[in-house]
Amino acid sequence: MILDQFKLDGKVAIVTGAGRGIGQAYAVGMAEAGADIVCVDVIDQAETVGKIKALGRKALALNADLSKGDVEAPRIVAETVKEFGHIDILVNNAGIIKRQPFTEHSAENWNLVLAINLSAPFFLSQAVAKQMIKQGKGGKIINIASMLSFQGGILVPGYAASKGGIKSLTMLMANELAKHNICVNAIAPGYIATENTRPIREDAARNKAILDRIPAGRWGTPEDLAAICVFLASPASDYLNGYTYACDGGWLAR
Question: Is residue 43 part of a domain?
């Protein structure tokens, strides 16, 4: 049956930034599809873990500072394998944004954003890929890009550079890892209704300007993103590789 291709029964997925918002939606969505989840974040993850366990799935919470991705990546992989025995899926969701004009953007902000948004996915994907190759059963790596993987934006030079880099890194990884049956794709979220975007949505003028640009006429939801994440993590997407999928209500098409 075709719906069986979307199941994640028996799979183990690592999700970074799983403590709240979109990352939590990815984690819970994959748990609903049958996966056990390793939640990685710097904040408390009790709520996410509780939601996963309520579904009858297993969950492991790992606290990690992904600004030190080269150090944390081997530990995350080792603790996941120790707990579950294998890794099948990685979702590189954790990210930050720092707003400053280009001519004033500090070295501190630049380095921090690049470390978390680009270097951490590189190091964690590298460590996970090595484990997947060792296991010999392939796997799925899902990076999180952005509308600014396609557009320049303003006031966020570090973020724009990191998300442009994620799009290119996704293609390179797909090229090199396909022979190991590891599929690498990315999701580029549009404007999503979360607690972080509440101030924008409550600003009537800005909210209207955004909605006027979105053909769907609404903000996206974390559940919209969870659905495409489950698809890219599942056998249903086995012939998709190296692409960045915009989930934006048509924003880029406008």
Answer: yes
Number of separate domains in the chain? 1
Task: For residue 84, give the CATH number of its domain.
Answer: 3.40.50.720
Q: Cα separations (Å) of 199 from 85, 193, 194, 225?
A: 42, 10, 10, 21
**Residue 100 counted as domain residue:** yes
Spatial neighbors of 101 by CB under 8 A, at least 6 apart, are 155
Span 120-167, pLDDT tens digits:
999 999 999 999 999 999 999 999 999 999 999 999 999 999 999 999
Cα distance between residue 28 and residue 13, in whole Å = 11
Position 73: which residue type? A
Task: State yes or no: is 26 an active-site residue.
Answer: no
Residue 5 placed within a domain: no
| Rounded CA separation 17/185 (Å) | 18
**Within a domain: residue 65?**
yes
Of 159, 239, 243, 245, catalytic: 159
Its domain, for residue 111, covers 10-193+221-253
Give the span between the Cα atoms of 101 and 99, in whole angstroms.
Answer: 7
Residues 54-69: tens digit of each pLDDT: 999 999 999 999 999 9
